[in-house]
Amino acid sequence: MFKLKAPDGKNNLCGKKLESLREKNKLSQRKMAAKLQLEGYDLDNHFIRRIENGERFITDIELLMFSEFFHVEIAELFKMPE
Predict the structure, then answer these.
(1) Are 20 and 72 contacting, i.e. CB atoms less than 8 angstroms apart?
(2) Tally of CB atoms within 10 A around 31
(3) What is the pTM of this model?
């Protein structure tokens, strides 16, 4: 049976880039979750950890949320961190 996975076996392609953007903005996972909660999103630091570690799939709505949060184009989220 075919499974949808990234080449490295993870469940998303943008987790490491999100981690890089979060660290660049000097945010812990908890602080980032708190800021997103203030914007009306129902999530916690475990949600962010699971995405960054590639344990969780990410939806198009979540991609839009992260691109707006970090003020980047959605395509930027798919680029590997430097």
Answers:
(1) no
(2) 13
(3) 0.89
